[in-house]
Amino acid sequence: MAKTAGGSGALESFSYDDAIVRLFATATILWALVATLVGVIVAVLLVMPSATEGVPYLTFARLRPLHTNAAIFAFAGNAIFAAVYYSTQRLCKARMWSDVLSRLHFWGWQLIIVLAAATIPFGITQSREYAELEWPIDLLIAVVWLFIFGGNFLMTLIKRRERHMYVALWFYIATIITVAVLHVFNNLCVPAGWFKGYSVYAGVQDAFMQWWYGHNAVAFFLTTPFLGLMYYFLPKAADRPVFSYRLSIIHFWSLVFIYIWAGPHHLHYTALPEWASTLGMLFSVMLWMPSWGGMINGLLTLRGAWHKVAADPVLKFFVVGVTFYGMATFEGPLLSVKSVNALSHYTDWTIAHVHSGALGWNGFMAFGMLYWLLPRIYQTKIWSDKLVSLHFWTGTIGILLYIIPIYAAGLMQGLMWRAMDETGNLMYPDFVETVQSIVVLWWLRVLGGLLYVAGVCMLCVNTLMTWFGRPSTYEVPVYTAAPLSKSYRDSKPETKDDEYKDVPMLDLGKGMSVWAKMGWHRRWERLPVTFTILVTIAVVSATLFELIPTFLIRSNVPTIATVEPYTPLELYGRHIYVSEGCYNCHSQMIRPMVAETKRYGEYSKPGEFVYDRPFQWGSRRIGPDLAREGGRQSSFWHWRHFENPEEVSPGSVMPSYRHLLDSELKFSAIAPHVKAAWHLGAPYSDDDLHNTEEVAYKQAERIAAEIVSQGGPANTMDRQAVALIAYLQRIGVDLFKTPEPENADAEGGEEAAAEADADVAEITAGAESATR
Amino acid sequence: MIRDLVSSLDYSVCAEIALALFVGTFALVFFAAFRLSNSATDRFASIPLSDQPEDPRSE
Fold it and tell me: In the predicted model, is pLDDT for residue A746 greater than 70?
């Protein structure tokens, strides 16, 4: 940036940094291809579960998080950055503050993506949805996101040459702040090695934090930045200003204030306190209003320009993208209504909802932006307009072919799960039957996914060919402008302040009149640091109003005397369960509904999860719920099930986990897990803490003996499957244990024991009546 | 002392306070947005349409 003397102040010459936009645009396209390809692979694995048999790194449960992470953080993430770097510079009339930070951001983010791809398939995962990455990568994300990206962005705002911060910038500010807050607080953990951390939250509180994060990851990673993108690129492509700037302001503040509350709607009818779930539903329903306001604002920006839409594929992408935003944000509040959620939750309905947003809203807005950007950043015409059109139609048909069968699958399976005959028994007691009935719809999904990937391939070809047509050196326009003066006062409010000068009225009234002119709000909108603080207050205060009661009111998570920490072997078995990503297909949460208690047993209680770090309630049942799995099957049944699920459960879509039968169980690796759990408050005995290997080995020997006695192979005690079996046999059994009084001889010991027995009898009676 | 203070607080009103905060803020934002003059909103809305710095840059 060069400075030249000019008039009343020093004029500055500057140019926009489009090289960083080219980098992020290229990364967006490459990761779009990877994310959608992995998506098709996991869709194929559901209909052909044995396609990658024998390769533990390629199971559905390990690849599905890879797909979601690639789609959200690699594809959508890079699209956000391309949009932010292009639009921020132009909206601020300033180059990014630091080219070095821009490059560090780009390469740091790509490193994070590569590390994610290198760890998740190897079972290095927290198994918390969209927050799977382990703590060293989480630290890197915090640094790259907040300090490098956030710092560079904020400094650019401070050094801008446009007085007013356009609304798109507001959305970017909210994105940066909120994602940082969500990421940091959701991922607080105690390390148990370089590749493993235990969440500081457990059970109900972990679930609450995770879905506070999870839903807001959708809100502030997949919605607000894309709205910023919409408010910039849609007017650009249509060459007309946004329909209503007032509406955009209301849209922004409403989303920032409402979204943060909505997370608990992911936990309806679970062990989460009722008040939190209801609050989540209420705010989710309120989201309808601003979301549709935003959609209408986007679509009406094209008023009088619909003839352009017919001719311009970029606008077509935007129109369909904004329409899918409207659809998804209509359906989201609908799904948050408890009675609807009771049917939709754990089914493919949620998957269809997510994909209408991801493929339609995020995908098409990103594609529209890229097709608008490519000729500008490569300074040549797009290689083939026809191919852009073909991409649009292929993608649109692909989305419809994907979501319609999956909506049908979700509705069908949800209805089958709850269907009961006239005698009050489940009509489809065999879970596998409900899965088999939707497999044909899963095949259609594969077809839809393939069409969508075909569209992304067309984008890749078009980009490559356009890039070949670029000039040998890019032209870099240089602009000249003076910096903004530091002292600035509105001219209009000053003149209007005198409006009531000679009117006989109280000074208070005059003061109110000045205040109501909202000049103070206009000032806030010009002050990036103040604005950032205001957004932070909005997000944090809403969060605290939900968090404080959840964490401080003890009655939210009533403890159960018989619930004890997992033994060292069971804890390690749970680690294997988490590493394999079993939550991708199995829930551990029986809702208090007749159909569920009949199928799975007594409904889940908050106090049962106090040692569960992370919680594993899941969000999708491709296999049955496992909350009461303990003691349901023999240990040898589990052994055979891992070896070949089809053999003991015909029609199952679970792949073989034979590698657990072959892999050695390293007893020496168990101790760090026990120590981490102990640090977090699990009351382990000295023996558990100091003789961990021995304690675990003894339990493994007992399970190995059971397997032999049930007709299984000998010498299985040092196999990983044994640890997992130990965990599975423990899930959900503590509730029904008879508590042992601590001091039976002490005064009152007998009364305490009698009381405890009465409590258990009550719980057991409740369980029996629920399942009767 | 902090423990006594925290345990004596009644958190059950949190949801009601939160709702009141939201409604109040929403009303304020709505009011603020509609206090904007047409000329200001037109000017703000047209910011993305040009990459050129404009001078003078008011508001």
Answer: no
Residue A139 per-residue DSSP state: H
The residue that leads in pLDDT, A537 or A498, is A537
For CA atoms A148, A153, A155, A159, the dihedral sign is positive
A35 neighbors A67 (Cβ within 8 angstroms): yes
CB neighbours of A577 closer than 8 A, spacing ≥ 6?
A: A616, A724, A727, A728
CA pair distance A479, A460, nearest whole angstrom: 33
pLDDT of the residue at A749: 47
User: d(Cα B35, Cα B32) in Å, to the nearest integer?
Assistant: 5
Chain A partners of B46 at a C-beta cutoff of 8 Å?
241
A302-331 in b/e form (b: 16+ CB < 10 A) is: beeeeebbeebbbbbbbbbbbbbbbbbbeb
| Contact call for A261 and B18, based on CB within 8 A | yes
Residue A6 CA, chain-centre distance (Å), reads 51
- pLDDT tens digits along A490-516: 555 444 556 667 777 777 877 777 777
Smallest CA–CA separation between A221 and chain B, in Å?
22
| B contacts of A167 (beta carbons < 8 Å) | 44
> Looking at chain B, which residue has its C-alpha nearest residue A548?
B11
What's the residue count for chain A?
772
- Reported as a pLDDT band with limits 50, 70 and 90, residue A548 is confident
Q: Can you give the pLDDT at residue A771?
A: 38
CB contact under 8 Å between A522 and B17, yes or no, is no
The per-residue pLDDT for A485 is: 76
- Inform me whether the C-beta atom of residue A250 falls under 8 Å from chain B C-beta atoms: yes
CA-based nearest residue to B54, from A84, A14, A482: A482
What single string gives the DSSP state of each residue in A332-376? HHHHHSHHHHHHHTBSHHHHHHHHIIIIIIIIHHHHHHHHHHHHH
Rounded to an integer, what distance in angstroms lies between the CA atom of residue A243 and that of residue A295? 11
Closest partner residue to B34 (CB to CB) among A246, A261, A517 is A246
Q: Please state the three-class secondary structure of A641-660 as a single string.
A: HHHCHHHHCCCCCCCCCHHH
φ, ψ of residue A273 to 5 degrees: the values are: -55, 145
Q: Which two tokens stand for residue A127?
A: 């198994």
A635-660 per-position pLDDT tens digit: 999 999 999 999 999 999 999 999 99
Angle at A87 between CA A367 and CA B44, to 5 degrees: 120
Which of A461, A465, A459 has the alpha carbon at shortest distance from A398?
A: A459
* Maximal CA-CA distance, chain A: 100
Chain A contact for B3, CB < 8 A?
no
> Best interface-test mutation with B: which of A17, A249, A289, A520 has the largest number of B CBs within 10 A?
A249
Mean pLDDT of A67-83: 97
For residues A278 and A235, the answer to whether their CB atoms sit within 8 Å is no
ipTM for the complex? Answer: 0.79
Count Cα atoms within 13 angstroms, Cβ side, for A182: 28
Higher pLDDT: A525 or B59? It is A525
**Closest to A344 in 3D by CA, of A291, A270, A278, A266:** A266
A593 in the Ramachandran plot: left (φ > 0), alpha (ψ -120 to 50) or beta?
A: beta
pLDDT beyond 80 at A26: yes
Contacts of A765 (CB under 8 A, 6+ apart): none
- Round the average pLDDT of chain A to a whole number and report it: 90
Q: Which of helix, strand or coil describes residue A87?
A: helix
Closest to A34 in 3D by CA, of A362, A581, A453, A451: A453
Q: In the prediction, which pLDDT does B9 show? A: 66
Q: Smallest CA–CA separation between B48 and chain A, in Å?
A: 6
Count other Cβ atoms within 10 Å, centred on residue B14: 21
pLDDT in tens, A77-135: 999 999 999 999 999 999 999 999 999 999 999 999 999 999 999 999 999 999 999 99
